[in-house]
Amino acid sequence: MPQPTKTLNPLHFEDLEPHRFEDLIRQLIYDFRQWRSLEATGRTGADEGIDIRAIEKTPSSDIIYEDEATDGEPIPVRDIESQDRLWIIQCKRERQIGPARIRSIVTSNLSGLTDKPYGYMLVAACDFSKAARDAFREEVIKHGVEEFYIWGKAEVEDRLFLPKNDHLLFAYFNISLQVRRRSLKTETRSRLTLKRKLTNELGDINRPNQKSVLIRDPRDESYPSIDLPNEFIKSPHWRYWEFYSHQPPDHLAFIYKKHYAYANWETKEYDILSKYDAGIPTHPIIAGQKEQWWDPNNLGQRYRNYWWDKVPETNRAWFIELRIIPYDRIIALDEIGDIYHPGPHLLVEYGTDGQPFKPNAKHCFIDSSYIARDKHTMNIQDGKRITYFPAEIPQET
To answer: What whole-number distance in Å separates Cα of residue 279 and Cα of residue 300?
Structure first.
């Protein structure tokens, strides 16, 4: 069964106070260029509403040479002085910005400036349409800006999710992907350790052992006492279950029900003796209870004899219903057990339905009995069940 993917919800930039949004952007662009200075002018209310004024340090690689030298080669004298570049960064914590609004912002920032900026950035807490981005490009070019960028919500989130900015993600939104990665690493290691224990005890992935496992909820403090046997039989707080396989991945499959059955392997028709669960009596006895506790009327022997006598050997089959336990529900594997029940014990967090198994997850099929010469398996198909067995199995004479 596919599992939903765990993802982060969109970051709520609109929840940040405007100056905090400016602070976030200023810290995000610390390594965007080699800055000589990065000034939060928006906090002072000065500089015509410009939020961040930055000076980019751009050392020149050009060298001035002397025209003449004694050996015929020019001699370097000095580097040309660095040509610092002015940048203006405008931050807008608005929910929506259209083309007209963008033109107004750019014009307001760039018109009438004494020093023409080399670079300009508009950063906002919303997404920009293509028309809005085109308007931005046209307007900044019109004002003679040589290098320009527009960052919307997606671009800001992309930068916040970089490992180097994890501290900012945590400081402003109380989210840490690095902590999540460490938690995932720890969880994965724990899962693999559990898998190794399970395969050592229950058999490897490809060839598991068919063995009985006591499954119980460690939160149940009444174990191993049974005060009301009849109530316990209806809804056991612990019980032996027959392990079947390691499937699907990171799950264990157990036989939940097992009934004597008839199967026609060619036509895919089948019938089931569904009033008796043949799986329970094969399990070890629950401590303090009689051998026939699960089958007080001795139906098992009668059903088995009828199935044996009335069903041809090649048609003898089991109806099997599998239920699964995800690793996430497994608290621990106790290989030793205790004086009441030898191991293995699977300690599982039971659900609200009183079951250790994953709700609404089961697989039913027909499997040929171990006596049959040719092994067959078939899935249950609608319309293929026939009436082969009587409604009531007659008493033996």
So the answer is: 10
Cα distance between residue 21 and residue 92, in whole Å? 8
> Are the CB atoms for 113 and 140 separated by under 8 Å?
no
Helices (H) and strands (E) in the chain, counts: 8, 16
SS (H, E, C) 191-260: HHHHHHHHHHHHECCCCECCCEEEEECCCCCCCCCCCCHHHHHHCCCEEEEEEEECCCCCEEEEEEEEEE
* pTM of the shown model: 0.57
Q: What are the structural domains, with CATH classification, of the chain?
A: 13-175 (3.40.1340), 189-379 (no CATH)
> For the chain, how big is the Rg over CA atoms in Å?
37
Q: What would the pLDDT profile of 160-181 be if each residue is shown by its tens digit?
A: 888 888 888 888 888 877 766 6
Work out the number of other CB atoms within 10 angstroms of the CB of residue 68: 9
Q: What is each CA distance from 204 to 181, 208, 209, in whole angstroms?
A: 29, 5, 8
Neighbours of 360 (CB within 10 A): 7
